[in-house]
Automatic annotation (TrEMBL), chain A:
TM regions (residue ranges): 9-30, 99-119, 131-164, 184-205, 242-267, 287-310
Name of the protein this chain belongs to: ABC transporter permease
Annotated signal sequence range: none
Organism: Polycladospora coralii
UniProt cross-references to SUPFAM superfamilies, sorted A to Z: MetI-like (SSF161098)
Length: 320, 557
């Protein structure tokens, strides 16, 4: 097992290098650079020329790549072209918020989706099952920005239950528990909005997976042995039915850091999603490269964890 | 299936609009402000920002417009404008200025009462320090063009001198500047925000944008001080009790990041007090709300359709004129801007003192006239397909590029195509591209017709954009006569008289109006809204938020 993990780690290194080369090429191939369209008749044109030179835009792309790579390995993510601020500072300010929002959304998803999915699968093709299916499809079809705006108008403006922007109350001096509660108060609405879509999707996965497991021979055997319905469900069906969730979990871990552009924008949640989106528009590649490299690394780690969890959950799988 | 879906979406829209009106009504009952009476001290107002400031709170280095919002209330400069766009030092750090020696020497005197937030006086040394920093070759900000008129600034930038030769300190509050040439707009152009010498001296210039006084302990000199910065979320400003113009009424101004689509709802609910940049389509809804004051004024910017003058297809002046007659710009203002704008025929926006009213009715929308001009110029439909052929009888079409990002502009592109095809010009409308790609194509001259916009400053000087030699002359418009007029309107001795200068711009705008360097489309109004509980708000060409009178804002208890 440990040998397997080490091997997987070693394989990841060339994968990461490859990802960085592809990313870098994509950014270079896109027309325009960080200063295109940035003209201001009150600012001398030579200023932009100087900036382009200072940031090394005039050097050949291969040289630029190696400059970036050697700095990146040493932990220097560079300086944002547009904002002239350390990229590590910009990402550092936001990554915690992104984690906080994504993990809360993930917990909400699991807490709601697993019971609903099982509940639905236990009563297949009943009225309540169709109702849940219907709601799931509605959840899947609502565009996030629309759902987010409805949530704000309903829960913030009309009912006044939740705040609609930021991660904490303006000018607060909270400490300890009060601070944590304030943070939770701010995260719940965006997290629910974010979770809404995945709850719908997860419910469908789990329902299908449980239904599928119920038709397996070993389940029929268990019933034939005279086991109680609940025991069969818990011991035999669920353990098998929830295996695909591990794959989903692995993928979600990567999404944790990529942030949710739309939800973050509407709730003015200072996370990575918005930063990366703006950096893409601005061709601000120190931010882009650092951001996407972090996402890539998390996706690889997520997959590794999922594979390891598989071997724990499913004794048929062995890694040698 | 289709039916069901559409039913769903309709019901959601209904639900949403019920909430909207519910929010509005709830507020109505709650507020009963008088808007009259004596100003009261205390309280705070909240201002919505659609995006987070970058956090470079130093006038010499910032570039972000939301950083500018914070600087607006915390830093003063030497010269300002009054509400009629005349230069004024009444509310600024400057006291007086005088041109001598054929307008080639400028003496600036500062007021002596102003202090930095840490109690140190603001002196001419701080101003000189700012100029010296900007001229340094280590300086990374974009302001050099604001000091290049001072003699010796270029030499320092090139590393040939340690100090700017043209600066002579007379006393602690007076400086004499030698200028490279007489220039009527020197006062509007010259960099006039001092930099606190006692805080930044000794900091290497390249570290200044990230230095402690820039990012953490901001020491300004205006009516509010920075109290707290929560990166990417909000900035809290508190009253400066030691301000030379007197104390502001408000205790605090909070600048908070709120999404543009949410800010309107928050304004109606009373959660935020000021919202900048309201979209035209929101105007009527907000105007109906009893708690909200909404005002508009022509902005210092406009949208245009650029013409690449290097394209062989666009050499004919008649063809360019037909383009203007053939586009229904009035319908755009009415339909897309809901009337919150105006049709423009010149580079100078309506709000400027140099605006040429005589051009208001130049180029009315006239399909027949456009067609006849085209025919006259030799563009005729030879094969009867409804589109004209080129003068050589071959197929003729023009490419139109446009960027994403400005919704009104995006909507105008297909309308322009439709309009121009009505006069028989085939338009090859390209897919919209995001801003960086679009302007890359424009900069490299890969376009024929393209949509773009300008944001301008109060001084009407068009150099930087319209001179044949300008880098930003993306039109590639070369016209020696226009160049001469532009230069004369700044450097000739007559230019120092505003009435005469206005006359010069009248000549220039008329001259190039006939030649059609680009198709001027429309000027959009600046629309701002605020909660009526805030009193003492002045709204002029700067809007309310950028007005120097935040000191007078007050809220009733």
């Amino acid at each position: 097992m440990s040998q397997y993990i080490v091997r997987r780690f070693l394989i990841s290194i060339p994968v990461i290098i490859l990802i960085s080369v592809i990313l870098f090429s994509l950014v270079q191939l896109a027309p325009g650079d960080a200063f295109s369209g940035q003209f201001d008749p009150n600012i001398d044109a030579s200023y932009y020329e100087k900036m382009r030179k200072d940031f090394g835009f005039d050097k050949p792309p291969v040289e630029q790549y190696f400059m970036w790579a050697s700095n990146f390995i040493q932990g220097d993510f560079g300086i944002s072209f547009r904002h002239k601020v350390e990229v590590s500072e910009m990402i550092g300010n936001r990554i915690g918020n992104t984690f906080f929002l994504a993990i809360t959304a993930m917990i909400i998803t699991y807490i709601l989706a697993i019971p609903i999915g099982i509940f639905s699968a236990e009563r297949p093709y009943s009225k309540i099952d169709y109702t849940i299916t219907g709601i799931s499809f509605v959840g899947l079809s609502i565009p996030t920005f629309y759902g987010a705006l409805i949530a704000i108008y309903l829960f913030s403006f009309y009912l006044g239950w939740f705040p609609y922007s930021g991660t904490e109350t303006v000018g607060n001096d909270y400490t300890g528990m009060a601070y944590i509660l304030d943070k939770l108060h701010h995260v719940l609405l965006p997290a629910f909005t974010l979770a809404f879509l995945s709850i719908a999707a997860y419910t469908r996965y789990i329902r299908a997976s449980v239904l599928d497991a119920k038709q397996q021979d070993f389940v029929r055997t268990a019933f034939a042995k005279g086991l109680d319905q609940k025991v069969v469900l818990r011991k035999h069906v669920l353990r098998n039915a929830l295996l695909p969730l591990i794959t989903l979990f692995g993928l979600d871990l990567g999404l944790l850091v990529s942030g949710a552009i739309i939800t973050e924008s509407i709730f003015s949640w200072p996370g990575l999603g918005r930063l990366l989106y703006e950096a893409t528009i601005n061709r601000d590649y120190p931010i882009l490269m650092a951001g996407y490299m972090i996402i890539a690394i998390f996706v690889l780690i997520g997959n590794l964890i999922a594979d390891i969890l598989y071997s724990v959950a499913d004794p048929r799988i062995r890694y040698d | 299936m289709k039916k069901k879906l559409s039913f769903l979406s309709i019901s959601f829209i209904l639900v949403l609009s019920v909430f909207l009106s519910a929010c509005g009504n709830k507020q109505d009952a709650g507020s009963g402000n008088g808007a009259t009476g004596e100003p009261q001290d205390g309280g705070k107002v909240t201002l919505a920002m659609f995006s987070a400031p970058q956090g470079i709170f130093n006038p010499v280095f910032y570039e972000d417009q939301y950083d500018a919002y914070v600087l607006e209330y915390t830093f003063d400069d030497l010269f300002g404008y009054d509400s009629n766009l005349n230069i004024s030092t009444e509310k600024s750090l400057g006291d007086s200025y005088k041109f001598e020696n054929d307008n080639k020497t400028l003496t600036i005197k500062m007021k002596q009462e102003a202090k930095w937030h840490d109690g140190k006086p603001v002196t001419i040394d701080d101003m000189i320090f700012a100029w010296e920093v900007i001229a340094d070759k280590e300086y990374t900000g974009p302001r050099f063009s604001n000091i290049s008129m001072i003699k010796g600034a270029q030499e320092k930038k090139d590393g040939k001198a340690d100090k700017i030769a043209g600066i002579t300190k007379i006393d602690d509050y007076t400086v004499k500047l030698e200028l490279n040439q007489a220039q009527a707009n020197t006062i509007s152009e010259i960099w006039d925000y001092p930099l606190a010498k006692h805080l930044y001296e000794g900091v290497p210039i390249k570290d200044m944008p990230n230095a402690e006084p820039t990012k953490k302990n901001i020491v300004g000199n205006a009516e509010f001080k920075v109290k707290e910065i929560k990166a990417n979320e909000y900035v809290v400003l508190e009253r400066n009790d030691d301000y030379w113009r007197g104390k502001a009424h408000l205790d605090q101004i909070v600048l908070k990041v709120v999404n543009q689509d949410v800010a309107i709802g928050a304004l109606k609910k009373g959660d935020v007090d000021f919202v900048p940049q309201i979209q035209p389509k929101e105007f009527d809804d907000l105007d109906k709300n009893d708690n909200v004051e909404i005002k508009e004024i022509g902005d210092f910017g406009y949208q245009y359709m650029g013409i690449n003058h290097e394209s062989t297809k666009l050499q004919d002046q008649k063809l360019r004129q037909a383009l203007v007659y053939g586009i229904d710009r009035a319908a755009m203002v009415k339909g897309l801007l809901k009337g919150h704008g105006y049709v423009l025929n010149q580079h100078i926006p309506k709000v400027s003192w140099a605006y040429n009213e005589g051009l208001d009715d130049a180029y009315p929308y006239d399909v027949e006239k456009a067609k006849s001009i085209l025919a006259e110029a030799g563009y005729k439909d030879l094969n009867g397909d409804g589109f004209v052929e080129g003068k050589d009888g071959k197929a003729f079409s023009l490419k139109l590029d446009y960027p994403t990002g400005n919704p009104v502009r995006e909507q105008s592109a297909p309308i322009i195509k439709e309009n121009l095809e009505k006069i028989g010009l085939k338009i090859d409308l390209q897919q919209p591209r995001e801003v960086a790609s679009h302007y890359d194509a424009v900069e490299q001259g890969k376009t024929e017709l393209y949509l773009a916009g300008w944001g301008l400053v109060p001084d009407p000087d068009p150099s930087g954009i319209f001179l044949s030699t300008d880098t930003f002359n993306y039109l590639r418009y070369k016209n020696a006569e226009s160049d001469k007029l532009i230069k004369a309107a700044v450097t000739s001795s007559d230019a120092f008289d505003q009435a005469k200068r206005k006359e010069m711009y009248k000549t220039w705008t008329e001259k190039i109006n006939e030649d059609v360097p680009q198709v001027f489309l429309y000027g959009q109004n600046r629309i701002e809204a605020w909660n009526k509980r805030v009193n003492g708000v002045t709204f002029d060409w700067r809007g309310a938020i950028e007005s120097p009178d935040a000191i007078d804002w007050w809220v009733a208890k």
